[in-house]
Amino acid sequence: MSTNNITSSNTKSAMTGQGRVVILGAGESGVGAAKLAQAKGFEVFVSDYGVITDKYKAALEKLGVPFESEKHTEELILNATEVIKSPGIPSTAPIVKKLVAQGIPVISEIEFAKRYTHAKTICITGSNGKSTTSLLTYHILKNAGLNVGLAGNIGQSFAAQVATEDYEYYVLEISSFMLDDMFEFKADIAVLLNITPDHLDRYDYKLENYAASKMRIVQNQTAADVFIYCADDEESLKAITLIKPIAKAFPFSITKKVAIGAYLEKNTIHILTEPNNQLTMSISDLALQGKHNIYNSMASGIVSKVLELRNETIRESMGNFKNIEHRLEHVAKISGIDFINDSKATNVNSTWYALESMTSDVVLIMGGVDKGNDYNMLKDLVKSKVKAIVCLGKDNKRIHDAFEDDVEVIVNTFSADEAAQIAFHLAKRGDAVLLSPACASFDLFKNYEDRGNQFKAAVREL
């Protein structure tokens, strides 16, 4: 793949910048970082070991930024002043190891972009629920009339928005992979929803390493900043005890009353950021239903109260929010059978939440790329709610081993069409067919969106 050449006038202006920025990965975050780096006068080069999509190639060509695809040319990378790395590239990648060995800083797009904005950042992380909570928080803030952007692991890249917009607030969905390459970044409001086993293949299969990564959400915070966390999540509490955050803490719980933060009492959530100023709302009025979504709504509600938004606006927004695609998304009702797309459930805990919210018997479609999953936490829910499992993936042995004593029927399938058809035949009127894979999608699909879209298309063909 040839390297795209920039014009001489572009080269001249780039060379007057503050050094050479090399960007590894030409996806949403990489191209956004290129746009911002160029705007700030850096010499910029983008390198992707994979194939760059036509959309992002066109964007780089329009910017006049040189790039390469399907290779990393070391002499064009190891001369960088600083490198911005895509979150999907592990620190064990050979080119990253060489950069680190040469003492060249390797950072995330989020770290880079924050240098160029004075906006307040609301940063949301957790193994599960961060997309929903980020979108809900953004929805509330936008409805309240705040000048707010949405970025991070969701939507348009943070760097691209910093380059072209002038927001006063950003809601950022932050993954552990992003946090690993963030060093000087500080969240004004940090939200930790939960810590459950996920991506352990990137963390030496040690939950404590993954938890330490998640706790980087509070790094650099001061006593003037805010930390919101789930007081019911055992792993979060363990990690907090080790790190001892110094920001003002607001816990949320559905099992116990808290003096400040949020709690559930008799189907009413109470959110208070100071003793005499609380918001109450019946959980039946929340747009997002299910126990896990009570947590998500509480977290968003605390953020909103910290920002001193009106109770009426918060209530209205939490009542009319529409959830994201591929997260417990109702697809269709066919012959009295509900089909639900939860393709975004790429880990065991997400699938646990999905099953916990089901009120009927379930035919569960699961499987894909196993990231070191421990299926034990699903066993009780599978025994009580699941009548059959339809495996969707190339290697389903671990699912068979985990559940062969808990369900009578476990079937292997290798396409969304096949999975939907077999699940339809196994279900009866009043049942639900739930796609909630507990695994990544890359064995048969491009990503979880592709998996969800193929499933929805297959259901509509039934």
UniProtKB/TrEMBL annotation:
Name used for this protein in its record: UDP-N-acetylmuramoylalanine--D-glutamate ligase
Organism whose genome encodes this protein: Pedobacter alluvionis
GO biological processes: cell division; cell wall organization; peptidoglycan biosynthetic process; regulation of cell shape
Broad class of enzyme this protein falls into: ligase
Amino-acid positions noted as binding ATP in the UniProt annotation, renumbered to this chain: G126, S127, N128, G129, K130, S131, T132
Iron in keyword set: no
Transmembrane spans: none
Domain (Mur ligase C-terminal) ranges: 326-439
Keywords: ATP-binding, Cell cycle, Cell division, Cell shape, Cell wall biogenesis/degradation, Cytoplasm, Ligase, Nucleotide-binding, Peptidoglycan synthesis
Its EC number(s): 6.3.2.9
Domain of life: Bacteria
Keyword flag Metal-binding: no
Gene3D superfamilies per record: Mur ligase, C-terminal domain, Mur-like, catalytic domain, NAD(P)-binding Rossmann-like Domain
Catalytic activity: UDP-N-acetyl-alpha-D-muramoyl-L-alanine + D-glutamate + ATP = UDP-N-acetyl-alpha-D-muramoyl-L-alanyl-D-glutamate + ADP + phosphate + H(+)
Any one annotated GO CC term: cytoplasm
Stated role: Cell wall formation. Catalyzes the addition of glutamate to the nucleotide precursor UDP-N-acetylmuramoyl-L-alanine (UMA).
Mur ligase central domain boundaries: 124-302
